Write a sequence for this structure.
């Protein structure tokens, strides 16, 4: 239906007769001569209808409106002097149309495609129109490009792409499962996979050695800008490898993806922080290191303090720490209220953050009167306090203080727009995560990552002695600019160690057989040492595209309520269909 696409013709094609087809991007009437910009996914070409060339088609061109689908034939000509468009590759030429066919007329659009629309629900309802916009088309193309680069890289590294089941058993991945009733097995359900975790480990037992999958995953959890109920990850697993092997592989993969997507050269050998270092320094296990504002420990300064709150905290094994928000002393009341709100949500036991402002040559804070002269001098020196700075303090249990100051740090950076014009890609690895975390609600221990994560070899004795809080995992996350791109671990491959891990998690022998018997049985037959990692493809595509939400790089996403406004899902199911799968409806309308 065409000889060229709409971004293909150049001055070298002048004089040729061509056929194009696409959408009318815009139409302009210049005294009876009609100009249209014809668009397909590749770009734009200007077409001109002159009455002297073809009176019938020139007359028909007056009926064209935006988004009509048309086919044109004509000759390629140089645009008149001074009328070229240097903003598009085809801007030096135009098509003098000799034949026009209107393939399909378009109704009046619900919104203009050349303008940004703040009403996201409207965009989601007419997503097929939203995707026609240049920005969205570019995002989808860019996602394809980086996905193709990932496939090529892993294929060159000797990995097999293998699909794993979508209908499976529930998996302990930390979120609720989506359940699917089985008509052939009344009263039984499949679960949609939160990740292909057990299957990829079984592929290692099967001897495939190197596996990857562009895997669809499902989690029934609350949504946010970088989270969807269904998402895509680049899932990787390999045998006979260690942590450094995975790190080297994944760094090369990310370098290839960012080169393909943005034509930037990312340097390998990403910095590494232990989990403890990340939390102590930045208050986050996915720190954004594009700005400083580090958390500073003040235990040495207040070692002999008589200030009761700090004294009691330190004597009780807690910490006293602070961050210096340089140049932020002019914080507004609204901003301060917001920081207090975030701190309270993070666990601050009082209503307001303790702070000191350096403004107008004075130190403004009730705390300042309490501190001794020596303490004041030490604080100024250690926190490098200058005119215009504001310092926020935290005192209490180490994890609570780290979390509070970490979230305050992130919010201040947003308020100050510290990364607004940043083009930096600050990759890093966070390693040596805790293996287990105590759940106050259940009164038991849970896996920080998942129950198949290998304990650090130096800490297995702590697992055996019951000192669970001290056990590290051979686990690692790759982080970029405050976003976790992916995480993984070296896995347990021994039946007895895996059973021991389940026991610690409160999963007894009988439940182990019901839920994980297939995996434990497989480990009896020579399971190789193995490990892997999963990268969030949607999140990587979002960052490469320069977007703030993964919805902008997914063709048909759900909104923040998990709904697809275009296809009206989720929807009600008729009672007779529910009966067929042995599900009783309790919905009262």
């Amino acid at each position: 239906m065409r000889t060229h696409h709409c971004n293909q013709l150049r001055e070298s094609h002048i004089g040729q007769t061509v056929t194009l087809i696409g959408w009318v991007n815009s139409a302009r009437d210049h005294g009876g001569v009609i100009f249209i910009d014809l668009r397909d996914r590749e770009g734009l070409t200007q077409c001109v209808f002159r009455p002297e060339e073809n009176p019938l088609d020139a007359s028909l061109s007056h009926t064209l409106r935006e988004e009509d689908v048309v086919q044109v034939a004509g000759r390629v000509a140089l645009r008149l002097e001074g009328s070229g468009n240097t903003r598009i590759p085809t801007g030096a030429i135009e098509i003098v149309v000799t034949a026009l066919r209107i393939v399909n007329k378009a109704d009046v659009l619900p919104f203009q495609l050349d303008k940004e629309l703040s009403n996201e629900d409207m965009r989601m309802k007419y997503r097929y129109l939203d995707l026609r916009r240049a920005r969205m088309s570019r995002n989808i193309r860019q996602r394809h490009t980086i996905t193709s680069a990932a496939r090529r890289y892993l294929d060159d590294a000797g990995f097999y792409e293998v699909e794993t089941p979508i209908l499976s058993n529930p998996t302990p991945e930390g979120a609720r499962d989506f359940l699917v009733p089985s008509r052939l097995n009344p009263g039984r359900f499949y679960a949609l996979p939160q990740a292909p975790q057990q299957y990829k480990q079984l592929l290692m037992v099967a001897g495939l050695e190197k596996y990857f999958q562009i895997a669809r995953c499902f989690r029934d959890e609350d949504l946010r800008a970088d989270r969807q109920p269904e998402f895509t990850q680049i899932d990787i697993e390999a045998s006979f490898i260690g942590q450094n092997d995975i790190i080297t592989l994944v760094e090369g993969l990310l370098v290839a993806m960012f080169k393909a997507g943005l034509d930037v050269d990312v340097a390998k050998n990403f910095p590494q922080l232990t989990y403890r270092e990340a939390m102590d320094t930045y208050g986050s296990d996915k720190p954004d290191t594009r700005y400083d504002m580090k958390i500073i420990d003040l235990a040495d300064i207040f070692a002999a303090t008589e200030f009761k709150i700090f004294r009691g905290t330190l004597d009780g094994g807690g910490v006293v720490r602070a961050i210096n928000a340089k140049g932020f002393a002019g914080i507004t009341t609204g901003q301060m209220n917001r920081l207090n709100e975030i701190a309270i949500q993070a666990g601050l036991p009082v209503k307001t953050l303790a702070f000191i402002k350096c403004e107008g040559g004075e130190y403004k804070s009730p705390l300042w009167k309490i501190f001794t002269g020596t303490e004041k001098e030490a604080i100024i020196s250690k926190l490098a306090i200058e005119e215009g700075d504001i310092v926020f303090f935290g005192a209490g249990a180490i994890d609570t203080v780290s979390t509070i100051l970490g979230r305050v740090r992130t919010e201040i950076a947003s308020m100050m727009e510290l990364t607004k014009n940043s083009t930096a890609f600050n990759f890093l690895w966070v390693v040596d995560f805790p293996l287990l975390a105590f759940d106050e609600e259940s009164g038991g221990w849970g896996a920080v990552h998942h129950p198949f994560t290998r304990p650090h070899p130096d800490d297995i004795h702590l697992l055996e002695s019951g000192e669970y809080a001290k056990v590290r995992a051979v686990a690692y996350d790759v982080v970029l600019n405050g976003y976790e791109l992916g995480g993984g671990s070296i896995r347990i491959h021994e039946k007895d160690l895996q059973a021991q891990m389940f026991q610690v998690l409160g999963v007894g022998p009988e439940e182990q057989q019901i839920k994980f018997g297939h995996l434990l049985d497989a480990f009896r037959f020579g399971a190789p040492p193995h490990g892997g990692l999963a990268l969030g493809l949607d999140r990587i595509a979002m960052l490469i595209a320069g977007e703030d939400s993964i919805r902008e790089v997914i063709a048909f996403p759900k909104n923040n309520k998990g709904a697809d406004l275009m296809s009206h899902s989720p929807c009600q199911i008729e009672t007779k269909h529910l009966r067929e799968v042995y599900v009783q409806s309790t919905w009262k309308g």
